[in-house]
Amino acid sequence: MLRPASEGALNEPLLVARDLRHAYPDGPPALDGASLALHAGELVSVLGPNGAGKSTLVRALAGVVAARGSIELCGEPIATLTPRRRAQLIALVPQGLRALPELSVERFVLAGRYAHMKRFAPLRREDLRAVASALERLELSELSGRLLHELSGGQRQRALLARALAQEARVLLVDEPTTALDAAQQLAVFELLAALAREGRAVLVVTHEWNLASQFASRLLLLERGRVAASGTPDEVLRAEVLEPLYGSRLLYGRAPAPEGRGERPYVLPWARIARG
After folding, report:
1. What's this model's pTM, rounded to 2 decimal places?
2. Which residues have CB under 8 Å from 143's CB, separation 6+?
3. In terms of DSSP bridges, do strands 43-47 and 90-93 run parallel, antiparallel, or are they unpaired?
4. What is the CA radius of gyration of the chain?
5. H or E element, residue 211
6. Phi, psi (rounded to 5 degrees) for 121
7. Which terminus of the chain has fewer CB atoms gathered within 10 Å of its CB, N or C?
8. What are phi and psi of 4, to 5 degrees?
9. Nearest alpha carbon to residue 89 among 99, 101, 76
10. Chain centroid offset of residue 14 CA
11. How far apart, in Å, do the first and last CA atoms of the chain sit?
12. Tell me: the pLDDT tens digits for 146-174?
């Protein structure tokens, strides 16, 4: 069971990546020297235009993409970890599934427990509890017997999140979790991610939603062509001189109180494209 991170725990990063570089065949660099550190108890949002390298970054951090550079997970080089040990420490939630297995929602979420189970061993109480808790937190309990292909896109995205939640990894990497969700569901997902960070996980989420990132994240990471163009608080990153040249757009800026006493946060609205000469 994870415990809420103390102030001291924030000084010890769970995930450290240095000078990550990767290029796909016949393409420009997808990662070009990106570095970051992710601490227990924080929610970090990765922003950037299409093609900035956001998805490649989270896939590299999870070990799915073999990037050059160094990645340390809980103090150990990620390349030295067995797949089982890696899955116990880090969970990746992709944008979607390329193929839908013939599984019920419950069995799909149970797959998140495989890293903690011995081969051919029966299910333990803690496995069943973890699955039930994940289904409940993602509001999928009533759909647990449905097959994945019977779900809507938004429901499948929540099932992916539930599987990662059942995995009980210390580091959670989430790639655009709100793409197929309505406004209320988007808020619910970010509320959950923020709660998971408060419980002691380190959470990194890729998103195009500036305002959800501003409201819930403690830190923003802005990518441009595989590099970290800016890193800091929402007030430090969501600024005209930072965003407008990168996105090629005029933006409107304001401030609004965030719920639950989180103070005022900046918000950004797209307004007009910048003509390129």
Report:
1. 0.91
2. 105, 151, 155
3. unpaired
4. 19
5. helix 210-216
6. -80, 150
7. C
8. -55, 140
9. 76
10. 15
11. 56
12. 999 999 988 999 999 999 999 999 999 99
